Amino acid sequence: MNNKHVLIVGASGVVGFAAHDAFHQAGWQITTLGRSSHSPHVSAHLSADLTALDDLNRQRAALESVTHIFYAALKQEANPGVEADINALMFENLVTAVRSASHVLRQIIFIQGGKVYGAHLGVYRTPAREEDSRHFPPNLYFRHEDYARSLEEKSGIGWTALRPDIVIGHSFGSPMNLGNLIGVYGTLCRETGTALHFPGPEDAWRNTLVNITDSRILGQSAVWAAEQAKYGAFNITNGDVFRWSHVWPKLADWFGVPVGEAQPVSLSERLSALKPLWASIAGKAQLKEHDIDRLALGGFGDLIFHVRKDAIFDVTRARQEGFNAMIKRSDEVLIAHLEAMRRSRLIP
After folding, report:
1. Which helix (H) or strand (E) segment is 45 a member of?
2. For the range 340-343, what are the long-range contacts, defined as Cβ-Cβ under 8 Å and sequence gap of 24 or more?
3. Nearest 10 degrees: CA dihedral of 326, 332, 335, 339?
4. What are phi and psi for residue 106, nearest 5 degrees?
5. Per-residue pLDDT tens for 47-61?
6. Which residue ranges make up each domain of the chain?
7. pTM of the predicted model as reported, rounded to 2 decimal places
8. 5-167+213-236 sits in which CATH class?
9. Is the dihedral of CA 323, 325, 330, 336 positive or negative?
10. 87 neighbors 44 (Cβ within 8 angstroms)
């Protein structure tokens, strides 16, 4: 029997896609689980509602050999208390069901992100370190971590919290996909004869330091944590920091349009208004996706491109523990993502 069996929850999102690829390449047995009856992967797939423990328990036989959980499911809610409650229920139901079925479960790996430090509040201590104080609750990630810590104390099952920031990678229908959003926005700038204006304020464009995470690095970190039994919290990024004003000219050059200025707009509103144009572009270029909302949602850009304070993570801890993949330049990661979108006929 394969003693490396990972259950990936949330495998259709940008993080889950990367984790699946990384575990597959590393030779793991993989089972995916989600509400949908369909999966984009070739691995065995289970359909279940994370909010219903009875539904999860029906999958008991398929969970008996699970040794590791990789959890990337997320249900967003405007009210942080409601969001924390529903996500805690989902996470705890899943772990309870797997523990009931499997006697070989030894590690739970789950995704956090900038929100654990307070990025959604507009400012936090930077560079953020894993041991930094929490912001004033509630926060869904606090609930996940507290539950995992309690479980470790009671049962010895280890936990790992991976903390990426702005994940760049492949997915459909994800509300947090900045790479796809840049691909859509740049394409629309070119098609409308517009310079590639930065859709945020001047200080966010010129002064703010940011970092991003290639989804492939994040996937590698999950396998590293699982195979090397690395427990605790780890920040995971490309390893560099940058200002948008440094990267923006390279993106404009790739799209073949002039570099614009910082012009704060709501991408959510603008992209919604341009849905018919995108459908026309997709039809003429025979693109795979005619629905702009399936590719990217402007609201995430409205958050990221309007951050006026440095938003960067310290990745020293993971490096000290032996994870050596965080050596990429983020401008190259973004260009590679755009080229992958073009090869996949997601943008012309």
Report:
1. strand 44-47
2. 340/170, 341/179, 341/180, 341/183
3. -80
4. -130, -10
5. 999 999 999 999 999
6. 5-167+213-236, 175-211+241-311+328-343
7. 0.96
8. alpha beta
9. negative
10. no
